[in-house]
Amino acid sequence: MKRIDAIIRPGKLDEVKDALGALGVTGLTAVEAKGFGRQKGHTEVYRGAEYKIDFQPKTMVTIVVSDELLEPAIAALLKTARTGAIGDGKLFITALQDVIRIRTGEHQAI
Question: What is the 8-class DSSP label of residue 107?
Fold first, then answer.
């Protein structure tokens, strides 16, 4: 099993959720996040005062998928989250060592 952490634009969350659901992804966690990368923030003017906004609003989506579903999930994320502009985000894929259901204490097969 693999864990995918996707940093995406907040406006893309519904498209991503629908695309992953169509693949059979049964669970998803989404968290509001702030960050920056190559875009390095931007400058805005408010009431005549100029200030720099370093952190851009993002959404971090975390899913866990079987090895067989990894490539289709990556393809769905790339297709739905991409706008082609700087700031589209990143995908981080990691192997899972263990998964334990808190309610029952059972270990999921990995």
Answer: B
Encoded amino acid at 26, one letter? T
Q: Which two tokens stand for residue 91?
A: 């995908």
Q: Which of 22, 39, 3, 38 is nearest to 79 (CA)?
A: 22
CB-based contact 13:81 (threshold 8 Å): no
Closest-CA residue to 62 (of 104, 108, 25, 24)? 25
7-52 confidence digits (pLDDT tens): 999 999 999 999 999 999 999 999 999 988 876 666 777 788 887 7
Residue 18, CB-side half-sphere exposure with 13 Å CA sphere: 8
What's the mean per-residue pLDDT of the chain?
A: 91
DSSP state of 41: -
Distance CA 16, CA 61 (A): 9
